[in-house]
Amino acid sequence: MLTYINIKNFAIIKDLELDLQTKMTGLTGETGAGKSIIIDSLELALGARADASLIRNNAERCEITIIFDITSLFKAQDWLIKQELDSDNECIIRRIITNDGRSKSSINGNPCTQQTLRTISGFLLSIHGQHENQNLPNPEYQRELLDAFAGNKSLVSNIRQLYGSWSNTKKKLLELENLAEDWQTKIDFLTYQLNELDAINLHPENLENLRTKQKRLNNMEEFSNNINSALDLIADNENETIIRNLYNVKNRLEICQNIDPKIGLVLDLINNAIIQAEEAASSLQQNLNTLEIDEEQQKQVEEQLTNIYALARKHQTQPEELLQIQSNLKQKLENTQNVTSQLEKTKTELEDIEKKYLKTANELSANRKLAASKIEQLVSEKMQILGMNGGKFAVNILPNINQGFGANGLERIEFLVSANPGHPPQPLNKIASGGELSRISLAIQTITAEKEVTPTLIFDEIYTGIGGKTADIVGQLLRQLGKRTQVICITHLPQIAAQSHQHILVEKMTNEKNTEVTLRTLAKNERIEEIARMLGGVKITKQTLAHAKEMLNISCQN
Question: Is-above-0.85 flag for pTM?
Answer without folding.
Answer: no
